Amino acid sequence: MLVYLAEYLSQFNSGFGLFQYLTLRTILGILTALLISFVVGPVMIRRLTHHQIGQTVRDDGPKTHLSKAGTPTMGGALLLVAISVSTLLWSDLTVRYVWVVVIVTLMFGIIGFIDDYKKLVLKDSRGLITRYKYFWQSVAGMGAAYILYATAQTPAETELIIPFFKHVVIDMGPWFILLTYLVIVGTSNAVNLTDGLDGLAIMPTVLVAGALGIFAYVSGHAQIANYLLIPFLPEVGEVAVFCGTLVGAGLGFLWFNAYPAQVFMGDVGALALGAALGVVAVVVRQELVLMVMGGVFVMETVSVILQVASFKLTGRRIFRMAPLHHHFELKGWPEPRVIVRFWIITVILVLIGLASLKIR
């Protein structure tokens, strides 16, 4: 919204023309989301504590987690507020991509909120029944997929780009809808599975979001896209502002979520952030690169799949406990060590993903 105000004021003072630059608005989006997090965070934590909306801890997990019982949860609402407000303030709202990524993020946040509310406020241990949760996730994911497919204006918007190869692309056609659905819903649940330790999920999310913001910027810039031999996607650069707000909100949340955490994000945050990463990766046509950069999320998800499959087929467990981060805890790794090492792995994977821009 402030873009239009700046455009109007530039008639009287040319200095306001600076706000038309995408890079500046992305930086301002980061700072605005960070500021909102710092201001709203303490208030939200006090309210959650006052209403006794606290974490419940399984007694069959690592014993070090028992002390976390009662820690305020549903702090992911802070992320949604900071991301949505900052994006609406600094984005060009005439770009359809902005609305798609914001609405998908909020829809998955609402699904997570209902699940958390039933568990923590209504004390229903089942939360939102699984089939209903996946149904509404599917509605949101499939809806976004169809809109992106139906409004595509160039062939590049529905092609699958193979990273590290110059001109290898696959025309997905209607299969684009299925791919998009799987990426959005799959990433949402993968981040949710990863959110089990203090700061474990939020920092990789910030790192991946920052990298996707770079992809958005270069893909939406005709000259840079041509130089890097990647498809030019008109207007997609505006998504960089959204990625910036996600980075700012994530860092602000980490301030309170770092070990030992003062607040947990809950499903309202984890499902929303995962969906946000998924839909942005689709918009910038980097689904496969997302799997590389989000390798920690992939490992956590695969560990759960393998654990369940192995136990059902053989009666044996592959890991001491799934998701994977609990396995290392039960092996004796202190929680901060698990967290930081997973962060380091993500840094490496994000750098590999960014290298795909040049190594082709």
Give the SSE layout:
Blueprint: H1 2-9, H2 22-50, H3 76-90, H4 96-121, H5 130-150, E1 159-161, E2 169-171, H6 175-194, H7 202-219, H8 222-228, H9 239-257, H10 266-283, H11 287-293, H12 295-314, H13 324-330, H14 335-355
Antiparallel strand pairs: 1-2
Helix pairs in contact: 2-3, 2-9, 3-4, 3-9, 3-10, 4-5, 4-10, 5-6, 6-10, 6-12, 7-9, 7-10, 7-14, 11-12, 11-14
Model description:
This protein is mainly α and 360 residues long. Helix content is 66%, strand content 2%. The protein contains 14 helices and two strands. The chain has a two-stranded antiparallel ribbon with strand order 1-2. Helix 6 crosses helix 12 and helix 7 packs antiparallel against helix 9. It is globular. It starts with a helix and ends in a 5-residue tail after the last helix.
Offer a concise description of the structure.
By secondary structure, this protein is mostly helical.
**Beta-strand share of residues:** under 5%
Assign an overall shape. globular
Structural category is: mainly alpha
Ranges where pLDDT stays below 50 over 5 or more residues in a row are none
Strand tally is 2
Rounded average pLDDT: 91
* H/I helix tally: 14
Termini distance? 38 Å
Rg: 20 Å
Note the main attributes of this structure.
360 residues; mainly alpha; two-stranded antiparallel sheet; 66% helix; globular
